[in-house]
Amino acid sequence: MCLSYIKIVHVCSPTFQSTGVYTGHSPSERPWRYWTDTAAVVTAVQEPANTTSSTGAVEPTRSVHAALHTSGTADETAGGEVTRQSVTFGGIGSGPGQFARPTGVVVSSTSKIFVADYTNHRVQVHNMDGAYVRHFPTAVPRMAGEIMLPHDIAIDCQDNLWVVGTVVFVGHRVVQYNRNGQGLTMFKIQSDRFCNGIAVDLRNDRIVVASQDSGKVEIFQSDGSLVGTFGENFSVSRNIAVNIKGNILMSYSSFVHVYNGIGQFLFSFGGRGSLASPRGICTDSSGHVLVADRKNKRVSMFTSHGRFVRHVANGLKTVNYVAVGPEGQLVVTNTIGTITIYPSYR
């Protein structure tokens, strides 16, 4: 089996656990209190601007990353903290290594970073040093000359990429590409506009697509046949992930909501005590959940049961999407078009 590196309520008396998990009602009924824990914080130094090489590709920049909870071979500071270098690359633009609007990120089993670049109609590939490797246009198989605006990206056990997006004047599609950018298959989805997220259930290669506009989540087989739909009676976020148990996680409002593989609500966690404005979400091979929290300017980690573990990165003013690598790397995208790699979040 392949694992990814990942209102006031009066009726029925909702239950809360001291772990910060809300188990009483569906997301349409807001919890009225919550608990949080305290933990060591990982700090990240803001990055300087990138420079451009003579070839036109943007060169990554590096800065010290103080990881209070990690250990390893890196040099130690006078305070006993392990120091590691984070790498930042990208910036607004259309050249190699630049992004007009990064809308999703995943990491392959070989530690290659794939970033969906919406306005540039492409997926860019970088290594864990932040160096530009290549890019490929988000062309649509069986639709000659059609290029898709990619909304989000996911990856399966074979390192094939699944991209959901819009073909202008045509409609919305899900396309599977191999790691080299060759289009393998495609199927149509229903959506109102341009707010779709995608995830893969690595146990069975089912494709989960969330449409923020239509307010529903659709589950497909890899051939595009529809398995089921849920979520039409409450708000749905485009920020979605599937964990190692096949549970579907969705960040919305100040919570992460958890459903089983057929869309039955299980529980929620977070709340304004620990999450203020969650955006991107991912899970790892241990079941941990990492959430990009825009308003709190950080990335936070929780267990698969919703218990807060720690903040793994702070001071991130425009944090947007997150992904983890096979060796414990953390990749964070920002709305200003930059990507930052932290050597370890564990």
Topology:
Layout: E1 21-22, E2 43-44, E3 51-52, E4 58-59, E5 61-67, E6 82-90, E7 102-107, E8 113-117, E9 122-126, E10 132-137, E11 149-155, E12 161-167, E13 171-177, E14 183-189, E15 196-201, E16 206-211, E17 216-220, E18 226-230, E19 240-242, E20 248-252, E21 255-259, E22 265-270, E23 278-283, E24 289-293, E25 298-302, E26 308-314, E27 319-324, E28 330-334, E29 338-342
Antiparallel strand pairs: 1-22, 2-5, 3-4, 5-6, 6-29, 7-8, 8-9, 9-10, 11-12, 12-13, 13-14, 15-16, 16-17, 17-18, 19-20, 20-21, 21-22, 23-24, 24-25, 25-26, 27-28, 28-29
General description of the model:
The strands form 7 sheets. A 6-stranded antiparallel β-sheet has the order 2-5-6-29-28-27, with no helix packed on it. A 5-stranded antiparallel β-sheet has the order 1-22-21-20-19, with no helix packed on it. Helix content is 0%, strand content 45%. The two termini are 22 Å apart. The protein has 346 residues and is an all-beta fold. The chain has no helices and 29 strands.
Q: Mean pLDDT across all residues, rounded?
A: 81
| Major β-sheet strand ordering | 2-5-6-29-28-27
Given as residue ranges, the uncertain stretches (5+ residues, pLDDT < 50) are 3-20, 28-49, 64-83
Number of strands: 29
The helix-strand sequence is EEEEEEEEEEEEEEEEEEEEEEEEEEEEE
Helical percent range? under 10%
Shape: globular
* Proportion in β-strands: 35-45%
* SS class: mainly beta
Question: Can you summarize this structure?
Answer:
The protein is an all-beta fold and 346 residues long.
